[in-house]
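Example 3.2
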Amino acid sequence: MKIIMLGAPGAGKGTQAKKLSEKYGIPHISTGDIFRANIKNNTELGQKAKGYMDAGQLVPDELVVDLVVDRIKEKDCFKGFILDGFPRTIPQAEALDYALNNQNEKIDYAINVDVPDENIINRMGGRRACVGCGATYHVVNMPPKKEGICDHCGEKLVLREDDKPETVKKRLQVYHDQTKPLIEYYDKKGSLLTVDGTLDINVVFEKITEVLG
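Structure, written as tokens:
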């Protein structure tokens, strides 16, 4: 089963991807993880990506696709995979389809976790991250035992720059401009599954697995 997770930043697609990964025994792959692994292992592709990142530039589509295709050829992807954060644009989606077609494979499902912008701004504004271990909390949905303090390591919790309302609005605008067209792209291919991401996490998961089987 080859799955792509779609949805705005903060829609909860990463959470659903982790749960699906555990249920179906297929890897949850994010582009961030791929970049970090390749840079850490000093691969040729990793060195190229690092060059762009160090210069403060976006990694070009061709290189991102190469990194992703390289990853999904690994043994743990034999039964399938869940891509989270890729593709982000139509050209990336087309390049991924082309690479999979060359292996006589295709994307089975593009799961769109649909959440209105207003909900996302409120949701992300309540996020808190630990400066020590990186653990994340939410002031309403998943508060720490002691306000402002991490349960795991006792360091303080902060509102990350990425989660501030003004930053979230900018990220949502980028999403609507670049990534939202992917919903129509996969809908035309007949592989789109849209779920209401405002529902309880477990209800969203049940609705997805009802379709996946």
